[in-house]
Amino acid sequence: MQTKRMTFPGRFLPYALLAPQVIVTLIFFIWPAGQALYQSLLREDAFGLRTTFVGLENFSRLFRDGNYLNSLSVTAIFAIGTTLLSMAAALLLACTVNRMIRSRSTYTTLLVWPYAIAPAIAGVLWWFIFNPSIGIVPYMLDMVGYQWNHRTSGADAMLLVIFAAAWKQISYNFLFFLAGLQSIPQSLIEAAAIDGASPMKRFWTIVFPLLSPTTFFLMVVNVVYAMFDTFGIIHATTQGGPAQATNTLVYKVYADGFVGLNLGSSAAQSVILMVIVVALTVVQFRFIERRVNY
């Protein structure tokens, strides 16, 4: 069997085509990461007038800091809750829309709109919805005897930021799940139906296993989203409170660096956050991908 090989007319053409992406990566990813790693080894005053090399002292202090260890557990709960809720809701919506024929495109367009909203705007919307004074949800919960107040209750605050972050990500997950459902051969589902399999049986034995590549991809993307891209939502809703109940790692980097002006500790936290996300991604590809059926 003869294979075709692409050849370029010039020796430098492939490098010229790669150059824009390489330059963007170096300027906006590699260079900031290197600066954060270097700054994490320093101690600076609030005005940047004096710098002292302290080595790994910033990292050792973090792991002795109870507030930072609390942020680790808060981030884990927030990331797991956001990922599970957003993916489950998106899969349910995708299965519902996939069964429609005439109005499928209309519902798809309507469900995609929330993804275009900025994270801070999404946070403000959900802050109004769950506001203890004027929000509709606290009013309805009060009718059944539950006093909602995310300003004083850490559990309520965590639920609020999880709802807001998951709602923002549902549209993205929905598009991929819908594309995955439409790529499944209908003949397999029809054959299972002829054999007497119930709708739930057909979903768990045929549809969901065939969606495993899409599910795995979205799980990786959603974990990264929850760890990095939810700063605007938390800042607009709870600002890490109450009592640091929603103070995730990415928000603590901002609070310590830009509010507390502890630049060395903030840089060390950003390095640790980057390592955690890379490690989680490696673990997902190393162990969870084995269960994916391509």
TrEMBL record:
PANTHER family assigned to the protein according to its UniProt record, in alphabetical order? BLL4140 PROTEIN (PTHR43227), SN-GLYCEROL-3-PHOSPHATE TRANSPORT SYSTEM PERMEASE PROTEIN UGPA (PTHR43227:SF9)
Subunit structure and binding partners: The complex is composed of two ATP-binding proteins (UgpC), two transmembrane proteins (UgpA and UgpE) and a solute-binding protein (UgpB).
Where does this one sit in the cell?
Cell inner membrane; Cell membrane
Task: Recite the UniProt keywords alphabetically.
Answer: Cell inner membrane, Cell membrane, Membrane, Transmembrane, Transmembrane helix, Transport
Organism, by scientific name, is: Vreelandella aquamarina
In the UniProt record, the gene name given for this protein reads: ugpA
UniProt cross-references to InterPro entries, sorted A to Z: MetI-like, MetI-like_sf, UgpAE/MalFG_permease
Q: What is this protein called?
A: sn-glycerol-3-phosphate transport system permease protein UgpA
Residue intervals passing through the bilayer: 12-31, 72-95, 107-130, 157-181, 202-228, 267-288
